[in-house]
Amino acid sequence: MSATNLSSEDRLIDFKEVAHLLGDISERSVRRLIARGDLAQPVKVLSAPKLYQSDVFAYLEKLKAKRPATRR
Length: 72
Description:
This protein is α+β, with helices and mostly antiparallel strands. Helix content is 43%, strand content 15%. The longest helix is centred in the last third of the chain and has 14 residues, at 53-66.
């Protein structure tokens, strides 16, 4: 996939922004999620680790699917 074909959802974001998207957790917690395999491995851009925003959203969707259904 070329850079011109990337949607706005597939932009690369730093760990600070990932932490914010995941509910203002710490950047260290983001690293732990990566180490456990819960989040995708980062891509290095000029030695700075980045994640695809779509991977973070996919992780959030997995969490959403795991939660128990609410009773009414």
